[in-house]
Amino acid sequence: MTLHPYTPITMALCFMVIITVCNSAVLSAAGLALVLLLGTAFRRPNVLIATALMGIPAVISFSLMYGLFGQWQSAAELSIRFAAILSGGLLFFSFVDADELLRAMSLRVPAPVVFILGSITRMRQLAQFRLHTIRQIQQSRGMRVRRFSWKYVLLPLIVGMISDAAERSRPLQRTGIARPGPRTVLYPVNDPFAERVLRWVMVAVTVVLSVWVVL
Questions:
Q1: Percent of the chain with pLDDT over 70
Q2: Is residue 114 pLDDT above 90, yes or no?
Q3: CA distances in angstroms from 185 to 22, 95, 107, 144, 188, listed in the order given
Q4: Higher model confidence: residue 25 or residue 164?
Q5: For the whole prediction, is pTM greater than 0.70?
Q6: Between 109 and 72, the higher pLDDT residue
Q7: Which of 51, 112, 131, 122 is nearest to 85 (CA)?
Q8: What angle do CA 146, 147, 149 make, to 5 degrees?
Q9: 3-state class of 17 per DSSP?
């Protein structure tokens, strides 16, 4: 089952807000356990690895800031809360398809903004392709170049990425990307009524719960 990209984004934001506002160690631990369970069930090992890599430095920092002064309970609560928020955000965002998100945003978000976001999401893929091309060219010349050589690898990579961006912008200017007016998408993203209702319900529950906790 493929979700509309707005649905997992809404889930991620609501999850992180609820964990933050409630400020409960029990709820944070339950949220973290739920995320770990879902990450394992849906086979998202990258989420679990990223959570561990970014969570361990945070745990060490909280331990140094609070544990050295005897406040180990505060350090543990902050560590669990941070891990829950981080893992929840990473897990739900892992269900977002970048292409579908850009197509969904094209109908409501200004086209230049969508183009910038699309360029950012594809930057890693384009950089890897150009880096592979640069290495092939250097090898065809019989050169043995260090992997991150500034002169023979990084500098051509940066110049090439800038040149590619300029080339992609020219046809967009001719199509009138910055002109106002209604726009259409060749392959629109399906947004079922049930998911729209679910998103509004999640937002409403999050707002009500946040107001109730604060007041």
A1: 81
A2: no
A3: 40, 22, 7, 47, 5
A4: 25
A5: yes
A6: 72
A7: 51
A8: 60
A9: helix
Residue 207 has pLDDT above 70, yes or no: yes
Contact indicator for 5, 104 with CB cutoff of 8 Å: yes
Sole residue written with tokens 């809360």: 81
Say which DSSP state 94 is in: T
Residue 189 has pLDDT above 70, yes or no: yes
Cβ neighbourhood burial of 181 (10 Å; 0-12, 13-18, 19+): exposed
pLDDT at 50: 86
Amino acid identity of residue 11, one-letter, is: M
Rounded to the nearest angstrom, the gap between the alpha carbon of residue 43 and the centroid of all alpha carbons in its chain is 18
What is the number of residues in the chain? 215
Q: Which helix (H) or strand (E) holds 123?
A: helix 123-140
Residue with tokens 């998100």: 101
Structure tokens at 105: 């945003």
Q: In angstroms, rounded to a whole number, what is the distance separating the alpha carbons of residues 189 and 196?
A: 13
74, HSE (Cβ side, Cα atoms, 13 Å)? 10
**Coil, strand, or helix at residue 2?**
coil
